[in-house]
Amino acid sequence: MIRVTFLGTAASRPTVGRNVSAIAVQREGEAMLFDCGEGTQRQMMRYRTGFGIGSVFITHMHADHFLGVIGLLRTLGLQGRAEALDLYGPRGARKTLEEAIHLGVERVPFPVLIQELDPGDHVRREEYDVRAFPVRHGTSAIGYALVEHPRRGRFDVDAARGLGVPEGPLFGTLHRGEPVEVNGRLIHPEEVVGPSRPGRSVVYTGDTRPCESTVEAAAGTELLIHDCTFAEEERQRAHETFHTTAQGAAGVAARAGAKRLILTHLSARYSDAPGILEDEARAIFPGALAAYDGMTVEIPYGDPESGESG
Questions:
Q1: pLDDT above 70: percentage of residues in the chain
Q2: Which of 6, 82, 192, 284 has the fewest CB atoms within 10 Å distance of its CB?
Q3: How far is CA 165 from CA 161, 175, 178, 187, 286, in A?
């Protein structure tokens, strides 16, 4: 299961009901943050995502997207954390993040590793990559796509039995892609294992104008999380401030062939009336949703219609 929890869905400043940008993603026992605005650590407690994160991916160095790192590091230190924490950000982020790490304390009692990423860079994990892609926000900024590696094909139990393979360890050996010998005959994996299956993906833009690079990064994604700061009535302001309207986000999702679209980074004027944004987006991309703090989306294998809760 991939579980996405929206910890902050407001634009620029918090409101009574919305904190600034942060998203927690849990995948098969691993946890990470995408952006970490002020107050994120409290939201993690409020929505019970836990503090066992290994990485924080920051889209750009505007305060509403990274300022919560300072308090988060303090809390993790007081909890006795010993494991290293990886901080990722766009080109130019290192200096600000290094200052944030040491702000208010002599030292952090666990390693904090900072890495700047360029568009096209991949953070490689055993079963997935986090890929940085270019966005347009008038400053050094990147979006992120969590993309799972292809999965093994389905194991055909009946075919294996028909070939005389006894149930047990040899099934696993074949499924791992290794041949086995049964009664003097070499049985190859392709005889009992179907073609590989694509993994899942989640794409998060951070702040951006609509752009072709997002369409490419989000092609076929299970979930696109897109900047939606304004409704169409503020289209010119959205363009001037390098943000996106609901219709703009929906157009990107439609062209990408995304399975789901969730709108975030909502201006305070829509904080209590997100239906305006949903209605505009749904005219282009049916089913689009405006995120709210505490909203959780689960993405199981093979089920693009997974629901949200919160």
A1: 97
A2: 82
A3: 5, 12, 13, 9, 48
Task: Report yes or no: 199 and 216 within 8 Å, Cβ to Cβ.
Answer: no
DSSP-derived 3-state class of residue 41: helix
pLDDT at 85 over 70: yes
Position 296 pLDDT exceeds 50: yes
Cα–Cα distance for residue pair 5/290, rounded to 1 Å: 13
Q: How far apart are CA 138 and CA 135, in angstroms?
A: 9
* Measured CA distances, 189 to 150, 160, 161, 171 (Å): 16, 10, 13, 10
How far apart, in whole angstroms, are the C-alpha atoms of residue 59 and residue 204? 9
State the Cα–Cα distance between residues 10 and 25, nearest whole angstrom.
18
Q: CA nearest 292: which of 263, 257, 253, 255?
A: 263
| Cross-strand pairs, 133 | 143
DSSP string, 116-181: EE-TT-EEE-SSEEEEEEE--SSSSBEEEEEEEPPBPPPB-HHHHHHTTPPSSHHHHHHHTT--EE
Distance between CA 197 and CA 149 in Å, rounded? 9
Nearest CA-CA partner of 177 in 167, 168, 188, 169: 188
Does 122 have pLDDT greater than 60? yes
Contacts 24+ apart (CB under 8 A), 76-82: 76/51, 76/110, 77/105, 77/108, 77/109, 77/110, 79/51, 80/109, 81/51, 81/109, 81/110, 82/109, 82/110
CA distance 136 to 214: 10
Spatial contact of 139 and 146, defined as CB atoms under 8 Å apart: no
Tokens 């073609």 belong to which residue?
A: 195
pTM as predicted: 0.88
Q: Is the pLDDT of residue 190 over 80?
A: yes
Residues assigned a catalytic role: 64
Instruction: Please give the pLDDT value at position 310.
Output: 43
Packed helices 93-102 and 68-78: angle between N→C axes, nearest 10 degrees: 40
Question: 197 by DSSP, 3-state: which?
Answer: strand
- Report the C-alpha gap between 88 and 34 in whole angstroms: 9
